[in-house]
Amino acid sequence: MMTHDLPTFFRALHRGPDPLILCNAWDAGSARMIRSQGARAIATTSAGMAWALGIADGNHLPADLLLAMSAGIVKAVPDLPVSIDMEAGYNDDPATVADLARRVVETGVAGINIEDGTDAPDLLAAKIAAIRKAVGPALFINARTDVYLRQLVPGESRVAEVIKRGEFYGAAGADGLFTPGLMDRAAIGDIAAGTSLPLNVMAVPGLPAVAELAALGVRRLSSGSALPQHLWARVASLAGAFLTDGASDPLWVESMAYPQINAMMAGASA
Question: Considering the entire predicted model, what is its pTM?
Fold first, then answer.
């Protein structure tokens, strides 16, 4: 891999023989840990990033904190492409969103996610077009549509709606289509066949195995907020028990050794 051209490498990962599997990080340390497990790229979870800062998820992350965390993650994994989740861009004005994306790109990222949520598709398309104009062709823009996650249209209309939005966002400058909440095999296959963009799905209980997803046409699989949710559950359980009884032994069950964690962090730039 040529580390000086990470955006090109990141694009190529969406065209490989197997889907790109992304474990979503939430800070520099988690990115470093995921890298140690053999990740080919790092993506972030907006929920995990917000929670790590004591902020609720849902377009509440201040721009300066987003930029600081983006820069920290890029520095922690300088040999891997990084894709940053920008949620809906933290603003309804496409020009303002594009300016934030430009500053995110300046931290060294190779890709971004940006979502429609409950907004009209026209708004996300305008944001994508403004971002593309501001940053040029290298950045991989993954357009997330919440048609399935938020059940924006009736069930029988969702496949057609996702395909329509995917082509609309692609025409505006998007490079990928992310559809969290999508898990039905037939729908996955129909959407993958019906859009020209690489299809990204998110890990949910009951999602087909990655080999079947690949056969259905999926090109990218993300863990979403699953890892930090698991972490928060484990920490809450341990902390609650320790505050109740002060027992030390349970704190060390299934823990990772200090030297192992420290070795993962060694060599990261300050």
Answer: 0.96
